[in-house]
User: Fold this.
Amino acid sequence: MTPRTGPRSVTLSVVVAGGGSAGHIEPALALADAVRRLEPDARITALGTARGLDTTLIPARGYDLALIPPVPLPRRPSVDLLRLPGRVRGAIRRVREVLVGVDADVVVGFGGYVALPAYLGARGRVPIVVHEANARAGLANKVGARFAARVVAAVPGSGLADAQVLGIPLRRAVTALDRPALRPEARARFGLPPDGPVLLVFGGSQGARSLNSALSAALPGLLDARVGVLHAHGKGGLAGPPHPGYVPLPYIDDMHLAYAAADAVLGRAGAMTVAEVSAVGLPGVYVPLPHGNGEQALNAGPVVAAGGGVLVPDAELTGDRVLAELLPLLTDPARLAAMGAAARVSGHADADERLARVVLEVAGE
Assistant:
């Protein structure tokens, strides 16, 4: 890698690239928090776009956001594909402006359409650390790994050569969560019943149509069994009718409180979802996305194999299946405890600081 020219900055300057979805943003911000704990004076800059959740989540956590043009890769031949090279060049130029402006010492990418121009813009100028959260690496990280100083993965077998397996960086609000102690406050916060089992349902930051539909069909049976339901249905997503014990929300900002209020989870199997649900010791019924490269089923595989969760194909998710999987579990405290303990074994409690030390090492080189 070509060394940087000019004087080295006195204050460490770290640029993180994980914009777009919460699954990319949250590990980037967890890493940023860990860097700040180790280097309180460090300057952290997050790359993002005006699309997605970047402008909402990143400033709320107290970090500077530098916007770059979005460069989503078209899934099929179209006019957008012809425009792609020009869009990439524009995004790379903007990335380089940011890197110079903040005197970046290291760029840390977490995949997705923000990471790709970050890698290309930093190449040969600023050292790169690539983190792959999924069990199967995406295109951006496959490109970035070719010229990165270090490559890190959450689990073995990601497809990235010589990747160091460290887990997924998670917020301390999650990894240090004391669910029993926080439960009364959490249930009061959401207006849930103080006693009895609670099911948490969410499909990621954008919700999930099949989860919402299946829950709507299962809701009468859950409520008849006195199971409370906290449902993050996504912006514009389908929510069930108002009913005591059922709390629908477009999005949950304080997920650690949602985990504290819950006894089990019904959700997708994104890498962050599986890591957080496992870390707090909640049993999960995971419903992988039916498209993509199959990484969501692989993400949940180790937890399911350990006995901490159940995998249900999206095509098989119905109201009856929700009741069949969750009612016996939620009404059996001993089974809830056993599955929760099995889930916690596969957590990622210290991955944030382990990755931060890798970043500091690369910056120091």
Q: What stands out?
A: The two ends are 12 Å apart (CA to CA). Residues 13-170+349-364 form a domain with the Rossmann fold fold (CATH 3.40.50.2000). The longest helix spans residues 79-101. Residues 1-9 have pLDDT under 50 and may be disordered.
